[in-house]
Amino acid sequence: QTRILSFLLKPAVLYLILKILLTFLTGEKMRFKKFHFLLLAFCLCISAEGHALESHVLANGLEIFIEENHIVPLTTIRITFRAGAIVETEEINGLCHLYEHMLFKGNDLYKDQEEFMAALKRMGVGNWNGGTSTEYVTYYITIPSDKLEQGLSFWAHAVMSPLLSSDELIKERKVVHNEIAGKQSAPEYALFEAELHALYPDYWYRRDTGGSLDVIKTASVEKLAFIKDHYYVPNNAAIFISGDVDPAAAVEIVRKHYGAWQKGPGFPKITPHKQLPKHKWTAVDTSPSKGLVTVS
What we know:
single chain, disordered N terminus, globular, six-stranded mixed sheet
């Protein structure tokens, strides 16, 4: 019943239903074009393939979410950590961002970025990336559905056993430093920074996903290991699998490759922000930007 209702509420189906009703009420001859039949067929396919989201939790705390959809033989695997700027202090602001870059630089199975990228190519990965947000860090790939186990094994080695090479860190510090410096050189960055300090005066850095240039310049392997040991742990992570998969089989594959992953401290206790005054005005001087005026 739920699936029937979901199907009937699709915009395209509603359009067709209304067209039929109007034709009946006005007495006009019904004229279905080829487009209408294709639209209805497409909606029927989507309805027939839809499945509810399944969720599971392994003994080590790793959460699994699976959405089954067999329309095309593709599967997306995403692994997400409760990390990012929100777990950082001012002294380590930016390390989650830097760590995200370093994760692609090799692990115990793929010794460097070249091998890492070659593995993606062998699996036929059509889409992949990683990203750091204020409250999470995420990585994903889209692969042919028959490569599900390879994809899950790929991410298991990447997140559980990164090399964190000191030589690679020296290179990546420059990359991230330049990325942050480029963002900070934009005229609107002055407004963004002023907003952070005005809205979150005690913990402004929790909203700065890029990080501090000074923190990035002094980042060490030991500091990155702190991020790994505290936040890249199963009880602080979730795996999302969607597409052409058998949920029961997918759970067992996740258990096989991630079941021995040891728990860690996980998400820290966050001190809440103080309540702001009812009104607060902030003036931002952007005179070097040749007359640009910003108001917050």
